[in-house]
Amino acid sequence: MSIEINEAKKFVLKIKQTETALGKEITNFKINKKNKMMIRRSIFLKQNASKGTKLKNLKIIYRRPGLGIGPDLYNKFKSKKLKYDLSKNYMLKLKDLY
Predict the structure, then answer these.
(1) Are the C-beta atoms of 69 and 82 separated by less than 8 Å?
(2) pTM for this one?
(3) What is the pLDDT of residue 93?
(4) Other C-beta atoms within 10 Å of 47: how many?
(5) Which DSSP category does 91 fall into?
(6) Mean of pLDDT values over 24-37
(7) Distance CA 77, CA 31 (A)
(8) pLDDT tens, residue by residue, 55-72
């Protein structure tokens, strides 16, 4: 039940081919900042909103792209008010709040 030298070489070669076919276990994706912002989501208005309305009283939705205020910052800014009258589907930005 021993293995011959030429069979051992073939066996090792097959193992190496299998490892190559499986690829690396860890893949490192490099995402630049611009692309990352496009993948993220931002707060959009679901309906028209008037000046002075607090963010927590607005009906909002999270959509792409992530160039405005992100969902992770909602709790930080929910007590802020709108500076301007804003229309439905508007992407909220920091300059729109006071």
Answers:
(1) no
(2) 0.64
(3) 94
(4) 12
(5) B
(6) 70
(7) 28
(8) 999 999 999 988 899 988
Query: What is the maximum alpha-carbon separation in the chain?
Result: 85
Tokens of 56: 């927590």
Can you tell me the distance from the alpha carbon of 38 to that of 29, in angstroms, rounded to the nearest whole number? Answer: 16
The mean pLDDT of 73-77, rounded to a whole number, is 92
Rg of the chain taking only CA atoms, in angstroms: 27
Of 95, 17, 88, 18, nearest in space to 58 by CA: 88
The two tokens of residue 42 are: 């931002």
In whole angstroms, give the CA distance from residue 56 to residue 70. 14
The length of the chain is 98
pLDDT recorded at residue 40:
86
Q: Where are the alpha helices (DSSP H) in the chain?
A: 5-22, 33-39, 74-77
